Amino acid sequence: MTETTTRTAPDSGTEVTLPVHTDLLRLATAGSVDDGKSTLVGRLLHDTKSVLADQLDAVRRASADRGLATPDLSLLVDGLRAEREQGITIDVAYRYFATPKRTFVLADTPGHVQYTRNTVTGASTAQLAVLLVDARKGVIEQTRRHAAVLALLGVPQLVLAINKIDMVGFDEAVFTRIAAEFTAHARALGYRDDAVTTIPVSALLGDNVVERSANTPWYSGPSLLEHLESVPVAPDPHDAPFRMPVQYVIRPRTVEYPDYRGYAGQVAAGVVAEGDEVVVLPAGVRTRVSKVDTPDGSKPRAAAGHSVTLLLADDVDVSRGDLIAAADAPPQLTDELDATVCWLAEKPLTPAAKVLVKHGTRTVPAIVTDLSARFDEQQLSSVERPDSLQLNEIGRVQLRTAEPLPVDEYAASRRTGSFLVIDPADGTTLAAGLIGVPLAPLAAASE
Amino acid sequence: MTTVELPNDLADAPPQVDNLDALESEAIHIFREVAGEFDRPVILFSGGKDSTVLVHLALKAFWPAPVPFPLLHVDTGHNFSEVLAFRDELVERHDLRLVVASVQDYIDDGRLRERPDGTRNPLQTTPLLDGISENRFDAVFGGGRRDEERARAKERIFSLRNAFGQWDPRRQRPELWNLYNGKHRPGEHVRVFPLSNWTELDVWRYIQREKIELPELYYAHRREVYQRDGMWLTAGPWGGPREGEVPATKTVRYRTVGDGSCTGAVESEAYTVDDVIAEVAASRLTERGATRADDRLSEAAMEDRKREGYF
């Protein structure tokens, strides 16, 4: 399906194969501190030739300055002064690599104790997550928690990379046992078996990372990279009803376009076509799409992920913050949000707190009317009616908003089912909100 | 047992959008968010390929209306004349507004002093921050990409700067879904990077697809240069060649365009966009490693400059 073209680079005479059409896969990594995540990321970058000579030279120099005998590849990915000084990864970083088949955006998340904040950030846009475990330890509590958070965030595809398989003598029985345990856990979290892939790897030695390994003759599946290149992923649910938050009203008022009035936005879910009946929310006015415009000309239809400008058949009042939706399947309009929140700030959440909620392109004041449960990360169970939510905790809240919002369940539409909680005092992002997602699947992680 | 409905019905999903389409849509979305949420945005424009792509995307985001922001160019006084001519032509053609902050003015009236090494790149920060506060710009678009440098790999798409223009990498807001938080207090501003997820190759493939014009410096041409620190620098008012540095005429091109005192050319026979794409794909050096002296100053040169308010 991917076309390529071969050209000769003018300076070196090297033959390079260039993709002329590739798709984009957004993925995130997760795992605990010592399971070899940096090594795996380094290996993927290195073996896909995404690390260039001057970057390697810089790592060699820095490693030598520190008195190390061999280059420390974590220096490739740890970008901040403090990270290099402390030898830890503090924050999510984004990495880019490409093969002739696909382009990848990888959210490299730290395996630090502050797992929720980072995993949530990385997972919010990921179409796939690679979860690492150490073959000697198998599925541990952290693995179950990470998988639960990934399920909560609706990451469609999971890969369990069973790392350090060389340390257990490439033993098939070890792999089979861990794979079965993880698959069962993922199933309990709502994943179908075809959305979960388990791969035995050695990130250090390169087994089954890019090339399939001769050391695992009992394993017939793809290498990690082969899987990443071929796994089917839709960027957003196309079969969901159409949703588009209005970002900006385009009114040129120029000689050429005196009466043009277009509603600009990125399709958040579903597909919109010329002639479709739509409803503008919160007003509830119904009209038709008269044109789907782009700077490259009008299109018959646009799907989730596309930035477009819609022209409407009737002269209705639409502005930033409104949502244009399929008339036959509109979202629920409500000022009572029932949601799961991942608390990302040091300032704790307390009931009756006044906050701002950013949903789509609309930001409204809201009040926390109830904090009904907290997910206990130690016991992997729910605690009823906690006093507060602290940094990195996940809880169940009810919010009343100053104006009604057109919302979907997060599980049906990641874009229109999510919101930010913002501190009105200083603008800090306090929490990630997921509408309608119950805590029960997280508690299921303990079973 | 409760189960979550996961969106994994992928078998009948329509084909995925092209990588460049996805990146373009994301950048346009970012432009429109800023236009909707901020009072006085500005596009930081250097005349280089990334900022030229940025202007192209802004034109697309608001088409058929004009771009609702001005451009801000920090002129180091050591810019390549081809780049200044290109800038003025672009502004004229698209009827844009241009604000210029001049490093030379600062040196002339004593607010800044020339550095002993002659490079003016680090001197840009003061005129940039003054330009932002004098014009009360509250959102400043930059063409920075996360693939350029490992400190930039940590940068958010919306990056809050305090009243001194400083970046604090340890206190960044988490960025979730495509919900960007543009809240800021008076005096603070937000740096916005719509090309965050693009690589150098993506930028060139987009230039090819969209037939975007660039300053001719980006393509192979004959030029008198001299070698310093492993880079080919152009003779100019920025000093050089110094004693012992022998000028030679070479066929070169530029991978980045910045201050003439610290941006080097690479030997190249890439005369067309297609040639450049093939060259970039085969290159074993990053664009900054190949051609930017200021990034070689220390292991954390970029991070340190960003903390001070540089891009």
Q: Which features does this protein show?
A:
A: 447 residues; alpha+beta; Elongation Factor Tu (Ef-tu), domain 3; 3 domains; seven-stranded antiparallel beta sheet; 9 helices; B: 311 residues; alpha/beta; Rossmann fold; six-stranded mixed beta sheet; ATP-binding (chain B)
Description of the structure:
The complex is a heterodimer of chains A (447) and B (311). With 447 residues, chain A is an alpha+beta fold. Chain A folds into three domains: 24-230, P-loop containing nucleotide triphosphate hydrolases (Rossmann fold, 3-Layer(aba) Sandwich), CATH 3.40.50; 243-326, Beta Barrel (Elongation Factor Tu (Ef-tu), domain 3); 332-444, Elongation Factor Tu (Ef-tu), domain 3 (Beta Barrel), CATH 2.40.30. Chain A is 19% helix and 34% strand. Chain A contains nine helices and 24 strands. Chain A has helices at residues 37-47, 53-65, 74-77, 81-86, 115-123, 141-152, 172-188, 224-230, 440-444; strands spanning 4-8, 15-19, 23-30, 93-98, 102-108, 128-134, 157-163, 196-200, 243-245, 248-250, 262-266, 271-273, 277-281, 285-293, 301-303, 307-312, 323-326, 332-343, 354-359, 362-376, 381-384, 394-407, 418-422, 429-435. A seven-stranded antiparallel sheet of chain A has the order 9-17-13-14-16-11-10, with no helix packed on it. A six-stranded mixed sheet of chain A has the order 4-5-3-6-7-8, with helices on both faces. In chain A, strand 1 (4-8) and strand 2 form a beta hairpin. Chain B is an alpha/beta fold and 311 residues long. Chain B has two domains: 19-202 and 300-308, 3-Layer(aba) Sandwich (Rossmann fold); 215-296, no CATH class. Chain B is 31% helix and 15% strand. Chain B has a six-stranded mixed sheet, with helices on both faces. Chain B has a four-stranded antiparallel sheet with strand order 8-7-9-10, with no helix packed on it. In chain B, helix 2 (49-62) links the parallel strand 1 (41-44) and strand 2 (71-75). Chains A and B meet through helix 2, helix 4, strand 4, helix 5 and strand 11 of A and helix 1, helix 2 and helix 7 of B.
